[in-house]
Amino acid sequence: MLDDIEREFGDLNVDRITVYPDRTEIERPIPGKPGLAQSYSYRLTAGTGKLTEQGTSSRSDAIPNDLAPLRQNLPRVIGLFSGADRTLRVENPTSSYVIVGASGPSVEMNLKNAEQGTTGSLVVGFDGVIQQIQRADQ
Predict the structure, then answer these.
(1) How many CA atoms lie within 13 A of 39 on its CB side?
(2) What is the distance between the alpha carbons of residues 14 and 17, in angstroms, rounded to a whole number?
(3) Is residue 103 packed enough to be buried (19+ CB in 10 Å), middle (13-18) or exposed (0-12)?
(4) Of 12, 31, 39, 109, which has the fewest beta carbons less than 10 angstroms from its beta carbon?
(5) In angstroms, what CA-CA distances link 88 with 25, 46, 58, 82, 84?
(6) CB of 83 closer than 8 Å to CB of 72
(7) Which of 45, 60, 50, 46 is nearest to 26 (CA)?
(8) What's the mean pLDDT in 45-69?
(9) What's the Rg (C-alpha) of the chain?
């Protein structure tokens, strides 16, 4: 996905990316229009990624994040997400999503088990260092 974003736009600057199991939502600043962001949907179909414009929205003090530093630490971040159910003590999550860049250069992983009423989150910097853990049993 990062390769596709960089190929399409020439950089990895985003306001926010939200990754769901079936799709990714991307918000990017619009050059020359500091109060607006362009939204995109990203989906993989048969191994090929596709970006689709979804419209514009207001940017409220959003500061673009350059995802380039995240790229080198992506294997660690993916590994943390793979084990997040155990780390966060959310057994058999019924939903999970990841937010990139919502509060600066960080990746927030969120898991929930609606049947058990448990939720947990893990925040990791683009450097791969854990910044915050909120386990379901806390």
Answers:
(1) 10
(2) 7
(3) exposed
(4) 31
(5) 24, 32, 33, 11, 6
(6) no
(7) 50
(8) 88
(9) 16
CA–CA distances in Å: residue 43 to residues 1, 51, 93, 96, 133 = 9, 7, 22, 17, 29
| CA 4 – CA 28 distance, rounded (Å) | 14
CB 37 within 8 A of CB 30: yes
User: What six digits make up the tokens of 111?
Assistant: 């898991």
Contact 77, 99 (CB under 8 A): no
Tokens 């600043």, residue located: 29
Residue 102: predicted pLDDT: 83
- Which residue in 6, 56, 9 sits closest to 34, CA to CA? 56
Beta bridge pairs of residue 50: 43
Mean pLDDT score of the chain: 92
Number of residues assigned to the chain: 138
* DSSP string for 22-88: S-EEEEEEETTEEEEEEEEEEEEETTEEEEEEEEEEE-SS---EE-HHHHHHHHHHHHHHHTHHHHT
pTM for the model: 0.90
